[in-house]
Amino acid sequence: MSNFGNFNRPVEPSSEGDLFTVDTQVTFLMHGQPQTGIITKQLNNSAVVEIDEKSDNTDLMVKSNGVIVINYKKLQKV
């Protein structure tokens, strides 16, 4: 039986996700450039990160609406 459309199922982050809870300040590389942001939601193997707006990442902010989904393995705590 498929769970397609079952949006009420709780998300259980992987073991890597235990370090990256909601409201954690993180840093990561995007297109070879270091970026920072705050985790707004945890997923199974990745997190939704609200990117900090800076003068040198305007293009990224426009393309991503200031939000990105990134794997826990690519994140580092600030």
Structure write-up:
The chain has 78 residues and is mainly β. It has a single domain, classed as SH3 type barrels (Roll). Helices cover 9% and strands 37% of the residues. The protein is built from one helix and five strands; from the N terminus they run E-E-E-H-E-E. A five-stranded antiparallel beta sheet has the order 4-3-2-1-5, with no helix packed on it. The longest helix has 7 residues. The chain is globular. The model has no long low-confidence stretch (mean pLDDT 90).
In short:
The protein starts with 24 loop residues before the first strand and ends with a strand. It has one helix at 58-64; strands at residues 25-30, 33-42, 46-51, 67-71, 76-77. The model has no long low-confidence stretch (mean pLDDT 90).
What key phrases describe this protein's structure?
SH3 type barrels, mainly beta, DUF2187 domain-containing protein, 1 helix, globular, 78 residues
